[in-house]
Design a protein that fits this description.
With 323 residues, the chain is an alpha/beta fold. It has helices spanning 24-41, 58-68, 99-115, 129-132, 149-157, 159-173, 194-207, 219-237, 249-254, 265-276, 289-301, 312-319; strands spanning 3-8, 18-19, 22-23, 45-48, 72-79, 89-93, 120-125, 138-145. The strands form two sheets. Strands 4-1-5-8-6-7 form a six-stranded mixed sheet, with helices on both faces. Strands 2-3 form a two-stranded antiparallel sheet. It is elongated, with a radius of gyration of 22 Å.
């Protein structure tokens, strides 16, 4: 079970930003509790740094997350400026963030923006204590400016939509499908497809797959593709996997990410998997611009973080459709 730490910024005598009788600490706590309830319904283990109007030191917030061995830390805040016209949402990650932190920041921000905001201020890098001292991938959300009246109206009227957006952004990067119906995948290539025949021939020659080269993709061909993937992980990374054509926890744990600019047989397997899932690549072992686009299209349609990087989540979705 994934563990997510939700950090409601400020609290107690630390009001955070203030606009008249409106205190940032209260907005933060309301949102954290709402997001937490949605995550719990999706089977996520939620840990809060606070559930009441109390002061929690910054170091304690990170300690709570580190003790929980969280998979993700999300700190919820609202912005403020002396310029009352300043508006919009932004997410922050550490100055040298993990890739998962960047993925989470973008996944959450994209969904918040889709729920309706005045402006999208993007994902930014900062040396905030909770980002720096927290071991888990960490994101800090600035959910509109408390100093801007229209942002406050949006926060209040779209509160549930924002909570849902944050929860779905979190679950998407954790590989959890909850509350979002994944789109129907594109149809596989037709029987007798020439590119599939070429893939089957390559699997036979490289991995002694023993496939009938008929241009039709099914469970037997898919197992051969997974065996090829396991073989490459063993050859290149000493993974020690059983080459059995079964996607399991050990294969997932041994998976290495590939991205634009990479070359080799693992890239070929990625391209082949994309093709048989209906995403038109030319399997050549070179991760170029077109492959990057197809990976992003696949990630978008499967509700994954859209980063163009094929890691464990992307490979798992690609290689288990025909299992």
């Amino acid at each position: 079970m994934a563990t997510v730490v939700l950090d409601a910024g400020h609290g107690g005598y630390d009001y955070g930003a203030v606009n008249g009788a409106r205190f940032e600490k209260d907005d933060n706590l309301r949102m954290a509790l709402a997001v937490g309830e949605l995550l719990r319904k999706c089977g996520v283990n939620v840990v809060y740094t606070r559930t009441a109007d109390v002061f929690i030191p910054l170091s304690e917030r990170s300690r709570i997350s580190n003790a929980a061995r969280a998979n993700l830390f999300v700190s919820i805040h609202r912005n403020a400026s002396t310029n009352v016209a300043a508006n919009g949402v932004e997410n922050w990650v550490f100055t040298s963030p993990s890739q998962m932190a960047v993925n989470a920041a973008n996944a959450i921000l994209n969904r918040i923006v889709a729920a309706g905001v005045q402006s999208n201020r993007g994902v930014r890098n900062g040396n905030f204590s909770v980002l720096r001292e927290t071991a888990a991938p960490a994101v800090l959300i600035e959910l509109g400016f408390i100093s801007n009246e229209q942002d406050n109206v949006l926060f209040d009227t779209r509160f549930n939509s924002y909570a849902d957006a944050i929860a779905k952004g979190i679950t998407s990067v954790l590989g959890i499908t909850c509350g979002e119906q994944p789109p129907l995948p594109p149809p596989p290539p037709p029987a007798g497809d020439a590119t599939i025949r070429s893939i089957q021939e390559t699997l036979n020659s490289r991995y002694n797959a023993g496939l009938t080269v008929d241009g039709s993709w099914g469970p037997q061909s898919n197992r051969a593709l997974i065996r090829g993937f396991q073989t490459e992980l063993n050859r290149n990374f000493n993974a020690g996997l059983a080459v059995d054509g079964v996607w399991g926890p050990r294969t997932r744990a041994a998976t290495r990410s590939v991205r634009r600019g990479d070359r080799g047989n693992i890239v070929y397997i990625l391209q082949a998997a994309l093709y048989v899932n209906g995403f038109q690549t030319i399997p050549d072992g070179i991760f170029g611009p077109h492959t990057d686009v197809m990976v992003r299209n696949f990630q978008r349609e499967r509700g994954l973080a859209v980063d163009g990087i094929a890691g464990p989540n992307t490979f798992e979705r690609l290689l288990t459709r025909f299992a």
